[in-house]
């Protein structure tokens, strides 16, 4: 037998960046450095509706969003921000709020100091803060507000609103090259230059480097990978990742998961957002679920217990395993806002719901708790495995309900207060 080295385990590379602190009251969300990759989201409510916006922020926060961005685009929206914050504080939701500013952010932050104070972070798009001399003045006013209130900023460049003067200048430089770059490469350079130059202007005004987060958002997977690989080489600022306008449903989910996973595996990215277009009737929280699942699938973080489920094939006789897997998964997710406090460590639980004898027992043994349901031709029995050992067999018409009770009892026994006390 040929002697060889053991196969190296795959794991995302460590990311090396400055650490920012996004703060509200006693709540501190660290971004970058040795902090975990953070999950962000954004409301789609009219911020003027302070109650509706606060309710959606709460939903996003309970789903796992660690920072929530809200639109601040009008004087009325700016005036409503303190009331959004007040409603959240009353509900015990201390998630930091990020103000999304375009075009008139300099005026809103100056004219509405209560808004500037209620936000924990400002998103500034250098492509639309003004033109010519106005750009420097208006960008400077936003930085001055951040300095006055000690807020973090994200300088977020977007290829849909790229600084056209900068792009034109770089195109002129490119045309003078003996071997001109492709137009797409010039656009990449414009995105990165805009972000880094804007960060330098903010630092020249007195901002610390660790108060600045950068992003260069595009809507193409390969474009995003190309831009962020180069951006990470040129700066040690914390980086916010996300495809802009990722799309709806499967398309948006797959595109976001593909691009973000490749970059995160390479150690690039400190906070992420999945920018999905919600399908009719779909909850806004879906983008938080997907972002969390990306990080959990990569082994970077653990948010909810994982449920391994059989996909189904000709060996399975019904959809019982599918229904049970969904029931258990929905139950675990619904309980997590409470369980995070009540059962520390429960997010690491592994549950298996399998549909026949081929892989069922093996997968169930690998899980903390698992069930192998009867498939085609199998005896009408469902063995339950706990901590790798077969403990009992369920039969009859109430297998799903009985298994859920077993899962609940297992969680209480393993993660409950008495279990923690015994372990200590």
From TrEMBL:
- Enumerate the UniProt keywords alphabetically: 4Fe-4S, Iron, Iron-sulfur, Isoprene biosynthesis, Metal-binding, Oxidoreductase
State the Gene Ontology terms under molecular function: 4 iron, 4 sulfur cluster binding; 4-hydroxy-3-methylbut-2-en-1-yl diphosphate synthase activity (ferredoxin); 4-hydroxy-3-methylbut-2-enyl-diphosphate synthase activity (flavodoxin); iron ion binding
Q: What class of enzyme is it?
A: oxidoreductase
Gene3D superfamilies in UniProt? Dihydropteroate synthase-like (3.20.20.20), Sulfite Reductase Hemoprotein, domain 1 (3.30.413.10)
Q: Where does [4Fe-4S] cluster bind?
A: 310, 313, 356, 363
- Catalytic activity of the protein: (2E)-4-hydroxy-3-methylbut-2-enyl diphosphate + oxidized [flavodoxin] + H2O + 2 H(+) = 2-C-methyl-D-erythritol 2,4-cyclic diphosphate + reduced [flavodoxin]
Q: How is the cofactor bound?
A: Binds 1 [4Fe-4S] cluster.
Q: In which pathway is this protein known to take part?
A: Isoprenoid biosynthesis; isopentenyl diphosphate biosynthesis via DXP pathway; isopentenyl diphosphate from 1-deoxy-D-xylulose 5-phosphate: step 5/6
Q: Which family does it belong to?
A: Belongs to the IspG family.
| Function as written in the Swiss-Prot or TrEMBL entry | Converts 2C-methyl-D-erythritol 2,4-cyclodiphosphate (ME-2,4cPP) into 1-hydroxy-2-methyl-2-(E)-butenyl 4-diphosphate.
Protein's name according to its UniProt entry: 4-hydroxy-3-methylbut-2-en-1-yl diphosphate synthase (flavodoxin)
Provenance organism: Polaromonas naphthalenivorans (strain CJ2)
């Amino acid at each position: 037998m040929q002697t060889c080295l053991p196969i190296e385990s795959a794991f995302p590379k460590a990311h090396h960046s400055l650490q920012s602190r996004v703060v509200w009251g006693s709540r501190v969300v660290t971004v970058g450095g040795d902090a975990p990759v953070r999950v962000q989201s954004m409301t789609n409510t009219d911020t003027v509706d302070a109650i509706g916006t606060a309710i959606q922020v709460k939903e996003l926060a309970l789903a796992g969003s660690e920072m929530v961005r809200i639109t601040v685009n009008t004087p009325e929206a700016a005036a409503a921000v303190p009331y959004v914050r007040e409603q959240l504080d009353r509900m015990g939701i201390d998630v930091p709020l990020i103000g999304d500013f375009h075009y008139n952010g300099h005026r809103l932050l100056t004219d509405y100091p209560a808004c500037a104070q209620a936000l924990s972070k400002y998103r500034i798009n250098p492509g639309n803060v003004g033109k010519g001399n106005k750009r420097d003045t208006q960008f400077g006013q936003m930085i001055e507000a951040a300095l006055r209130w000690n807020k973090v900023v994200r300088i977020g460049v977007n290829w849909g609103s790229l600084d056209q003067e900068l792009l034109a200048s770089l195109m002129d430089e490119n045309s003078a090259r003996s071997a001109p770059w492709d137009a797409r490469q010039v656009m990449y350079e414009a995105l990165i230059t805009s972000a880094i130059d804007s960060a330098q202007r903010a630092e020249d005004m007195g901002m610390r480097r660790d108060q600045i987060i950068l992003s260069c958002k595009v809507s193409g997977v390969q474009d995003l990978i190309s831009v962020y690989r180069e951006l990470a080489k040129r700066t040690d600022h914390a980086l916010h990742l996300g495809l802009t306008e990722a799309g709806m449903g499967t398309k948006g989910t797959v595109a976001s998961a593909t691009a973000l996973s490749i970059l995160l595996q390479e150690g690039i990215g400190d906070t992420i957002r999945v920018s999905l277009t919600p399908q009719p009737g779909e909850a806004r929280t879906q983008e938080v679920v997907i972002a969390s699942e990306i990080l959990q699938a990569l082994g970077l973080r653990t948010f909810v217990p994982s449920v391994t489920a059989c996909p189904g094939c000709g060996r399975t006789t019904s959809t019982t395993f599918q229904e049970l897997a969904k029931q258990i998964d929905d139950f675990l997710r619904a309980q997590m806002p409470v369980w995070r406090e009540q059962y520390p460590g429960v997010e690491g639980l592994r549950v298996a719901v399998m549909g026949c004898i081929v892989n069922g027992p093996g997968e169930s043994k690998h899980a903390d708790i698992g069930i192998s349901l009867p498939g085609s031709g199998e005896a009408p029995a469902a063995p339950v495995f706990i901590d790798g050992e077969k403990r009992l067999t369920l039969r009859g018409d109430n297998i799903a309900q009985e298994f859920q009770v077993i899962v609940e009892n297992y969680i209480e026994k393993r993660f409950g207060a008495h279990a923690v006390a015994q372990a200590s």
